[in-house]
Amino acid sequence: MATITQLLTKQVRTLRLVSCESRCLHTSRVANVAMSKFDQNSPMPYEKLVKNLEVVKARLNRPLTLSEKILYSHLDDPANQDIERGESYLRLRPDRVAMQDATAQMAMLQFISSGLPKVAVPSTIHCDHLIQAQIEGQQDLARAKDINAEVYNFLATSGAKYGVGFWKPGSGIIHQIILENYAFPGLLMVGTDSHTPNGGGLGGLCIGVGGADAVDVMADIPWELKCPRVIGVKLTGKLSGWTSPKDVILKVAGILTVKGGTMSIVEYFGDGVDSISATGMGTICNMGAELGATTSVFPFNQRMVDYLAATERQGIADEASKYKESLLSPDPDCKYDQVVEIDLNTLEPHVNGPFTPDLATPISDLAAAAKANGWPLEVKDGLIGSCTNSSYEDMSRVASLMKQALAKGMKSKGNFYITPGSEQIRATIERDGLADTMREFGGVVLANACGPCIGQWDRTNVKKGEKNTIVTSYNRNFTGRNDANPATHCFVTSPEMTVALTMAGSLDFNPLKDTLTAEDGSELSLSDPF
């Protein structure tokens, strides 16, 4: 590949004198749009991807799904690769690698042992897994920095030496950082965390892998993946009222179960897609991991353009728009291995659990189900945020509910915790007063980290073995997942429903029809979140 100096030499060969200023101006005119503001030497790969895709389409001679377009356009050898869903093994060239701090340690040691001077593709390390929720955000972060100083120092210095970006503790959760800074339509990324598919909210195929796979990609070795099947989820209608993007994946989990997505990519399509924000699409793709799916993805649309513009990536949005039909949308009449249809107009808010994320219960049936199954009705703790539901949209919608309660002198009946997904989100909710509203409601704002979602929670209000209920907007609720207590009944739902159930303090409350009694005896009927 020609260096930038060589390119400049070719461009100015006929000129006798070129000033530094004019040279820089000329460079900016011929430069491509970069993959991110942190990767200025890595241009957007669309032109190459489309060329690869043309080779594959000529061979297969059939309409392709969006998933196939993105995946096959990243083939190492598109002219000769055997391609058969569910059978062949694909050799792929991902665009980037992301690692969280727990898995990055071994991955970086393995890469160092390769003897290579720099990573072959843009790569990043994110410090989010080693911060325990104990008191509140700032104190917990300071404690984690002290306890894990050796780990953080190793990751920072090795990253600097080998060209890997380093996001320090407190900067945010890996998947939110990726969405805000690195994900783009058509991206193929591997990440050393199971919820890497979050990036599908911006139209990328983002796949969770082990550290060894990440090292292969960083070492410029083709990455192997068994050619996945494609499950299509057709969305019709429009989200409204209490129904949120989280309810889409809660419903899909109930249909497909925790095994139904195995060896498959879940691809969403239909006119209902446009009623969901980019961060909402990220929520849906994130929890797609609970289906056992390889990853999940949405087609490129205006909601993604809006999010890219809001996160100062208009150039990427403009580039993506040029390839919307050829690369970033499914072909008409493409074939899915299975199709699930969901009408957003009639979709009811869901609460899934306990002990498995695919036990889906509509809110209208929750009270009866809880009583019939002997689930503890009292909600001890409510927790919102994590990589699944920590967007500004999520935070503003729950704050609208809290303000209604506070106006009546009401607060959370159980403990309530908020985990911002990134420093950008935390700073924004502080700036706009949402964090103050949450604290007034009785909430504790934790560090910008995984925290209780992955079990990094020093919980003290129940004893181990004590039967109790917690409600979260997280993604996973297997036995002992959050607090190491096998008797804790964890239910996953939307942030809005988490707030409502914690406000009521009981699973037998349905905010769509029930009222709450304030201290003065008046009744509060919660309005729709906004």
Q: Helices, strands, pairings?
A:
Layout: H1 4-11, H2 20-30, H3 46-60, H4 66-72, E1 89-92, E2 96-100, H5 101-114, E3 123-126, H6 137-147, H7 149-162, E4 165-167, H8 174-181, E5 188-191, E6 205-208, H9 211-218, E7 223-226, E8 229-236, H10 245-256, E9 264-269, H11 278-287, E10 295-297, H12 302-310, H13 314-322, E11 338-343, E12 350-352, E13 360-362, H14 363-373, E14 379-385, H15 392-407, E15 415-419, H16 423-431, H17 434-440, E16 443-445, E17 468-472, E18 488-492, H18 495-504, E19 516-517, E20 523-524
Parallel strand pairs: 2-3, 2-5, 3-4, 5-6, 8-9, 8-11, 9-10, 14-15, 14-17, 15-16, 17-18
Antiparallel strand pairs: 1-7, 12-13, 19-20
Percent in strands: 15-25%
| Number of contiguous helices | 18
Secondary-structure-based class equals alpha/beta
Q: Estimate percent helicity.
A: 25-40%
Strand order, sheet with most strands: 4-3-2-5-6
Principal-axes geometry comes out as globular
Whole-Å distance between the termini? 51 Å
What's the rounded overall pLDDT mean? 94
SS elements, strand count? 20
- Poorly predicted regions: 1-31
Rg, rounded, reads 24 Å
Biggest sheet overview: 5 strands, parallel
